[in-house]
Amino acid sequence: MNRTEALATVKESIAGVVPDADFTTLGPDDPFRDALEMDSLDFLSFVEVLSERTGLRIEDEDTPQLTTLSGCADFLVAGTR
User: Fold this and answer.
1) Which among 38, 1, 63, 54 is positioned nearest to 14, based on CA atoms?
2) Is the overall model pTM greater than 0.70, yes or no?
3) Which of 1, 38, 55, 58 has the smallest CB count inside 10 Å?
C-alpha cells in the first residue's frame, strides 16, 4: 500500500465511524479524535474498521501512532510492506 492509498483508507475508515467527518480543515498532523469529536468507542470502532479493511492486526500499543492522518498512513504503509 502506498501513502496515497493509506490516507484514503484512513479517511474512509474514519468516515465509516463518523459519517459527517469534515477533512477539509484537518491537517495531516492534527490529532483527529478531538477535531472530529470522536469518543473512545468511536476510536475503537475506527481501529477495528481500519484493521478489517487492511488485514493488519492492530495492537493496543499501536494506537498512539494512530492519532493523526499522517501517523495512521505511516503505520499502514509500514505494516503492508
Assistant:
1) 38
2) yes
3) 55
